[in-house]
Every structure is written in structure tokens, then in C-alpha cells.
Write a structure and sequence with these properties.
The chain is of the alpha+beta class and 450 residues long. The protein has 14 helices and 15 strands. It has 3 domains: 34-141 and 148-156, Tetrahydropterin Synthase, Chain A (2-Layer Sandwich); 166-372, Chemotaxis protein chec, CATH 3.40.1550; 379-447, Roll (Surface presentation of antigens (SPOA)). It has helices at residues 2-27, 67-72, 74-86, 90-93, 98-114, 166-191, 207-213, 238-248, 264-285, 336-339, 349-355, 363-372, 390-394, 443-447; strands at residues 34-36, 42-45, 52-55, 57-61, 119-124, 195-206, 219-226, 231-236, 292-299, 313-323, 326-335, 379-382, 412-416, 419-429, 432-440. A 6-stranded antiparallel β-sheet has the order 6-10-11-8-7-9. Strands 12-13-14-15 form a 4-stranded antiparallel β-sheet.
């Protein structure tokens, strides 16, 4: 009898426990859905059409812990979604209710791909497909931004794409190769040391990626290129800035100390150097557009030089400087918005035309003459020359006579910049000594084989 009672009690306890578990399970809060962004826009061609479709998709998943797994398999997610979008025609995307069809197909395909039911909804960048009855996915601007009720699909124009074509990147490379040559000559003459400048790369990146790789202690200058809209960002690495400073101030060309920060005096000197580089920017760009570079601000913290949003695409030109063995970089960051007005000018034709040698007019000759005409040269008239011994030089007294190697009738040598170029004879004009030019003299240049 006691055994029967114990068995009945055990059954009652088991049944009660199971009932409590069911009741508690029903009352447990459901996990909060998590949004998962599979990356940048999906761009694909349409079936039986020349049009392109561009859309931003965000997925809703149930398990937050699986987010890392999906990040590692993001390529599978993107391939699945692109396959679905590519299977649609332009006509199908204009049909009412297409949002529900796309939503169900994407969820079903992803669930089969990963063999789970964690994908519960699909959203666009603006609105969930399941909540927007008349929303068709496309890359167009709505006439009424407050209402997303209608949209049309248009063909994608690669000429006005946000990404620059390879042709335009080549043009920018030529521009900054020219600038590289100019600043190499500038620093060599200004600092009095051997300085080499080489263009390393010109490529597109996200501004956030640029911010991650540029040294935190760099010197930044926000530059406006009038009449263009927007700004470009110029940066000097700590090594380049330090080399400029120590050579300008007469110090040795020693490596910069790790963690070196520019002082207020350093910043003032570098600011003047940067302003001397601005005309070279104008000269490098003059074949594409007439611009005038102006420094609007200088910073030592990149957070205060955010010229565009982090996800904006920018063009980064990297120039490696070599100051007697100390190497580091100068970079230019050009936003897409700055380059958009020049989209039709950034092609290879005007640049290659100047280097092809097919043009034989005198425009280059005139331009060069216009540049060098204001230059000042030193001209000397050398009456005669002779050599004496050091002891005679030491014992020279007032009234001593030095015998020269030429007579008064011999031609006088005239030098320009210490190079003999002209010959003449001594005379007078308006009661002043003067030299009358009689001819050209290239004998010394020929003798030196120049």
C-alpha cells in the first residue's frame, strides 16, 4: 500500500513540474529581434532589361548571439539576395505587392541556406517591405520625400556614379605626379638637403578607413579650392613635419621621437610652409580647372577636421617624402563632392594631349617665357683676370700696380649668372662707365662639353 502511495505522489510531482514549466515558458519574455546590416548597397542588373537595381537591405534576426556567425558568412547572404533580385524583371518590380514577394523569397532562401528560422523580416534603408504597400526598390529620388508611395526604376549611369572611373583616377594620378615633382624641388631648395618625392598611390577609400590609418599626431590643413564647393584635407606625418622643422632651423636630420607632438612654434612655422605649397596645388590643377587653394584651418586632431561623414567615399593621394633617408608620407584627401563639378573634365584627353607631342604651337614657349620674364639675373662685366702668389697678395700696398693679362683693346667678358654669355667693350654713356655688347660668347660652355 505504501509503495502505491509513493508512486502516485511521484506521478503528481512530475505532472505538476511539467505544468509549471509550460506555464513559466509561456510567460518568459521573447528575445528581442536584432537588425543585421549585410553591407553596402546591392547593385545588380535586371532580367531581360538594360536597367540596374540599387537597394539597401537590412535583415531582422532573432538570435543576437548569431550575429558574428552571419558576419563571417556575409558573402553567402549577399549572394542569396543578389540572386533573388537579379531574377526579377523591370515589369515585375512595378507590380503592386512586389514587396511581399521579395520579403518572403529572401526570408525563405536565407532560411534554407543556413537551415534555420532566425530570419524574420527584411527592411530597406527607409521602410520595411512588410509595412510599405506601394514601395518599389530603386535608386531614384522621390518627388515627395515625405511619402514613399511610388518609385520608378531607372537605368544606372556609370558616368555619374559615385565611384570614379579608372580613367578619372589616372587623371588624378597625373595631377599629383606633377605636384610631387613641384614639392620635391621646393623642399630640396628650401631645406638645402637632398629630398625625393614619389607618388605612391591614388585610390578611393571610405573616409573612416582613411581616419584609421593616418597617424594621430599628424598635422592637418583644411583647404578650400575656390571656386569648387567643399574642402580637401592635407596632412603631414610627424616624421615629415619634424624633418621640415629641424632642417629649416639648422638642426641635424634626426629621426623623430616616438609620440612627438608639435609645439605652438612648430605649428606656426609649418603653417607658413603649407601656405608656400598652395600655389603648387593651383599649378598642378591648372590643366583641369583654374582653382585657388586657400587654407581655412589647421588642426593636430583629426576629430576637428572631419570634412565629410565617415561612410563618404574619398580619393586619397599618398606622396612619400625622403629627407636624406628619413621617409614618411604626405596625403591629400579629396571628397567626391569636391570632384563632382569636374566629372566631365577629369578625363585623359587634355592631359595626354599635352604630353603626346602632337601639338606644335608656341603656347608652351609663350607660357614658359611669361613665367621666367620677371626673374632677376646677375650680370657682370669682367675687365680682365690674372693670378698672383699669396705672399704678393699679403704684401699689397696702396699704390702698387698689378699687371693684367689683357690689354685695353681686348674684348670684355660679360657673364650672366656666373656663365660667360656675351662679349663687349668698355665705353661711356651719359658720363657713366658702360659696356657695349659686341657679340655672343659660348666658348667656355663648349669647352666644358655642356
Amino acid at each position: 500500500m505504501k509503495k502505491i502511495i509513493l508512486i502516485i505522489l511521484a506521478v503528481i510531482i512530475i505532472i505538476g513540474t511539467a505544468a509549471a514549466f509550460v506555464l513559466l515558458k509561456d510567460n518568459l519574455p521573447e528575445p528581442e529581434p536584432v537588425a543585421y546590416d549585410p553591407g553596402e548597397y546591392f547593385i545588380t542588373d535586371l532580367k531581360d532589361s538594360n536597367g540596374l537595381l540599387k537597394v539597401d537591405v537590412i535583415l531582422l534576426i532573432t538570435d543576437k548571439g548569431q550575429k558574428k556567425f552571419y558576419e563571417e558568412n556575409n558573402y553567402r547572404i549577399r549572394d542569396t539576395i543578389i540572386f533573388i533580385l537579379r531574377s526579377k524583371t523591370e515589369k515585375e518590380l512595378k507590380v503592386d505587392g512586389i514587396k511581399g514577394v521579395l520579403r518572403d523569397e529572401i526570408i525563405s532562401s536565407l532560411s534554407n541556406e543556413f537551415e534555420n528560422e532566425e530570419f524574420i523580416d527584411v527592411f530597406s534603408m527607409n521602410s520595411p517591405f512588410s509595412k510599405q504597400e506601394d514601395y518599389a526598390m530603386s535608386d531614384v529620388k522621390m518627388k515627395d520625400t515625405k511619402s514613399m508611395e511610388q518609385a520608378v526604376i531607372r537605368s544606372h549611369d556609370f558616368k555619374t556614379s559615385k565611384r570614379l572611373s579608372r580613367e578619372k583616377i589616372k587623371t588624378l594620378s597625373l595631377i599629383y605626379e606633377n605636384y610631387t615633382r613641384l614639392i620635391g624641388n621646393f623642399f630640396s631648395t628650401t631645406l638645402g638637403i637632398s629630398c625625393e618625392a614619389n607618388l605612391v598611390s591614388v585610390e578611393e577609400q571610405k573616409f573612416s578607413d582613411y581616419c584609421n590609418i593616418v597617424p594621430e599626431t599628424s598635422y592637418f590643413a583644411v583647404i578650400r579650392m575656390t571656386p569648387l564647393e567643399g574642402h580637401l584635407l592635407f596632412s603631414l606625418s610627424p616624421e615629415v613635419g619634424h624633418s621640415i622643422l629641424v632642417n629649416l632651423l639648422g638642426g641635424g636630420n634626426e629621426p623623430v621621437t616616438p609620440g612627438y607632438k608639435f609645439t605652438e612654434i612648430d605649428l606656426a612655422i609649418l603653417g607658413k610652409v603649407i601656405r608656400q605649397l598652395l600655389p603648387m596645388i593651383d599649378e598642378a590643377w591648372e590643366r583641369i580647372a583654374k582653382v585657388r587653394a586657400v587654407v581655412e584651418s589647421t588642426e593636430t586632431n583629426l576629430q576637428f577636421a572631419q570634412i565629410v561623414p565617415p561612410k563618404e567615399t574619398v580619393v586619397i593621394a599618398v606622396i612619400q617624402m625622403d629627407f636624406d633617408g628619413i621617409k614618411s608620407d604626405i596625403t591629400f584627401c579629396l571628397p567626391q563632392g569636391l570632384l563632382e563639378p569636374l566629372a566631365h573634365s577629369l578625363n585623359m584627353e587634355p592631359m595626354t594631349e599635352e604630353y603626346s607631342g602632337e601639338r606644335h604651337d608656341d603656347s608652351y614657349k609663350d607660357a614658359i617665357l611669361e613665367k621666367i620674364q620677371p626673374s632677376k639675373l646677375t650680370m657682370k662685366a669682367i675687365l680682365s683676370e690674372t693670378t698672383i702668389q699669396v705672399r704678393d697678395l699679403i704684401n699689397l700696398q696702396v699704390g702698387d700696380v698689378i699687371q693684367l693679362d689683357s690689354s685695353t683693346k681686348d674684348p670684355i667678358k660679360v657673364t650672366i649668372g656666373d656663365i660667360p654669355r656675351l662679349t663687349g667693350e668698355l665705353g661711356y654713356k651719359n658720363r657713366y662707365n658702360a659696356i657695349r655688347i659686341n657679340g655672343l660668347n659660348y666658348e667656355e660652355e663648349s669647352d666644358n662639353g655642356q
